[in-house]
Amino acid sequence: MVSYSDLRFPHIFLTLPPTPMKDFRIDRYIKDAAPFAQPILNHLRKLVHTACPDVEETLKWGFPHFLHNGMMCSMAAFKAHCSFGLWKSQLVLGKNASDDGMGHFGRITALSDLPSDKLLLGYIKEAVRLNEMGVQKAPPRPKEKQPLVIPDYFSSALRQNKKAQEAFDNFSYSHKKEYLEWITEAKRDETRNKRIETTLAWLSQGKPRHWKYQNC
Fold this sequence. Notes:
By secondary structure, the chain is of the alpha+beta class. The chain is built from 10 helices and 4 strands; from the N terminus they run ααααββββαααααα. The chain folds into 2 domains: 17-133, Aspartate Aminotransferase, domain 1 (Alpha-Beta Complex); 152-211, no CATH class. Helix content is 45%, strand content 10%. A 4-stranded antiparallel beta sheet has the order 1-2-3-4. α4 crosses α6 (117-133).
């Protein structure tokens, strides 16, 4: 309770550090984690609050997240390792980000697996700066298209039907892939042959694999 005498010295309140905004669910999450994980999670949590004293804690998708003007970072504990991830990892870490263990610092099994406190604090502070500036998360890189493998049995069937061959050759990558996956995923020869027959008939009419749903 604030006394009258305290009111005569308002500078006291101005110098007090902000009260950490902690979520009791994070306390319970750490308590329920494996013994090896608890010191790791407590340390990561402490670093986040050090780098951003007014950070907000919450539980999303079943594991702890830290927010400041939006999503900032998260941590998680598994049976044999922990992870720590930055929401805008590509902007903060660049090519140094690891994709192992659902985080960006590999599989963390002990405090010694973490980068130095100085380095981690720098990363978190950069995440804070990006959020405060309103910088958006970098869009995911488009996946490189893998060369399509056309089985010999399907190539042979196409050569015997010029219309089907021409239509298939002129189709987009995605349309070709849809037909190839449908044919190659057949577990029985009988099913596969029937699908090839249907494919040739549809290709002869210039129809893609899912033509029935195009006008739905």
